[in-house]
Amino acid sequence: MRIKYLYSGIRGVIKYEGVKALLSRGLIFISHRLFVSEDYYIVVSNHKDIDKEVEVDYLPKVDDHCWRMISTNQQLDELIDDGFEFGAYELNLRSFLDKGAVAVCNFVVKELAHFSVFADNPRGKEVVEPLPFKVDFEKGQIVVGRGFTISKFRRLHFRRYNGYLIRKYLHPRGITGSKYPLQVNNYPSLVSASKSSEKLIISRCRFIKILWFKYFKETEIKPTPLTQIVAQMNDKIGNNK
Questions:
Q1: Strand partners, 103
Q2: Collapsing DSSP states into helix, strand and coil, what is residue 147?
Q3: Where are the alpha helices (DSSP H) in the chain?
Q4: By C-alpha distance, which of 183, 215, 211 is closest to 35?
Q5: Region class of 83: left (phi > 0), else alpha (psi between -120 and 50), else beta
Q6: pLDDT value of position 5
Q7: 19-34 and 2-17 helices cross at what angle (nearest 10)?
Q8: Residues with pLDDT less than 50, the chain
């Protein structure tokens, strides 16, 4: 079955992005197995005020959109049989689902526009976000992976909408909040995340992997709003001009 899924995913990449994209993905996959060097913050986001949020405030800026929450490859197959198109990202989604993660997929008509993934278990975390940091699954935390928007559907607020959908789904199930990393120098991502006031930075991590050698250090910091971190970066940018 896994060979079938792998073949289906590879075929999708070749069809929608070409052989060059497939080779590029393969090289990235291999390089990450050999060498990793990351400097990142750990961000926590609480879901306590979800009952006060209104869906219309988060809706994407496009008509004919819909979303599906998928937790198994069988569900993905059923959507494909129903005419939904996952393009070159079928392989990515199958790898998440194989490990126990959940995907929230957005479509325009039936074409994939965006997907976000999360996990409420250690096995799922391995594929959703392999960088090392602790997630208190037993205390109601989840780990959220990087969402991805297909280029022609960007700036339509799908990522923001999915954040709302995930919070709405998880809150009544006892999930208290989410946790995820943000690279220290990724200014656009930090600015985007700072638009949500409930998100706080609680630590900074350094992770290096060279073949079988691994180094990891996490330094806890006083919970700091992302807006403060972004303001400090803006000051540095201004001073360097």
A1: 70, 117
A2: coil
A3: 2-17, 19-34, 73-81, 90-98, 122-128, 158-170, 187-193, 226-240
A4: 211
A5: left
A6: 53
A7: 120
A8: none
